[in-house]
Specification:
Layout: H1 10-13, H2 16-27, H3 36-44, H4 56-77, E1 82-86, H5 93-97, E2 103-108, H6 110-116, E3 126-130, H7 139-143, E4 149-153, H8 162-175, E5 180-186, H9 188-192, H10 198-201, E6 223-228, H11 243-246, H12 248-255, H13 257-261, E7 263-269
Parallel strand pairs: 1-2, 1-4, 2-3, 4-5
Antiparallel strand pairs: 5-7, 6-7
Helix pairs in contact: 2-3, 2-4
The structure holds S-adenosylmethionine.
Amino acid sequence: MNREDVQLGDVQETLLIPLYGRARDAKARKPILGDATSVELVAQIDYDFTKFTGPSLAGSVLRTAMFDAWVREFLDQHPAGTVIELGAGLNNRSSRLDNGTAHWFDLDLPDTMALRRKFFDDSERTTMIAGSVLDTDWFEQVAATGGPYFFVSEAVLLYLGEAEVRTVIEQIAAGFPGHRMSFDTGGRAMMNNQDRNAVFKALPARMTWICDDPHDLEAWGLRLLDSRTFATPQPGLADNWPWRYKYGMPIMARLVPPVIKSYKLNLFDLPG
Ligand SMILES: C[S@@+](CC[C@H](N)C(=O)[O-])C[C@H]1O[C@@H](n2cnc3c(N)ncnc32)[C@H](O)[C@@H]1O
């Protein structure tokens, strides 16, 4: 088998961490996501994934499961709605959650999209877009579906500067007022710990946007609907998680609060 070469920018290369996390999860005795596609992708990419070690691999799986839960909830309410994955990497949320009627857009930078296109195809309801979250030229294509819209951005805005994050949010809010958006935030404790994090020791990219409290983003016009940590997943979600996460995360949150509580997954209404 000819394996695909990886030619990615520093931040773009970070997509390989959650991909490997999902692949390892799929092979685990008790998988959380059970995403077999990720195992196939890892096998087809010529890259030393074994350099990624440590708790962030499992963390990326818990994170994806929690974002999946919000997307599922949105699709339960709006089965023909539109989900826009900002900074999709090689995440295949659309194949995990598709209900047969929703529209899906996967946006990422051109080099990431070139890699993604080697494994995924567009379909009648699934569209890949090469572009930046900082651009607005893709809005028209998305808006053509009629909505309602759910924007999900997982481990992407963390790599931007605060002014850039604000631009992204204000532009999307202006283009899609009153719709919904979810993304993660990292506080100072998490950001200051990156050089000690095993996966970041293997890569040059670093996260830059520090947000200690997602309530602060309400000053930008967002309305915070929900904010969770790995210790407080959506009700019932952790029922199929291995005990070390289901019970371990709440224990860790009590023993070493900054480690768990600094990273938050958030759900917002865009001003409308
Ligand atoms: C840590 S990866 C996360 C990938 C995916 N969300 C996941 O969880 O598997 C970060 C992703 O952000 C993308 N990214 C970084 N800056 C971006 C930008 N300005 N616009 C769109 N995507 C961006 C990278 O290409 C990469 O795919």
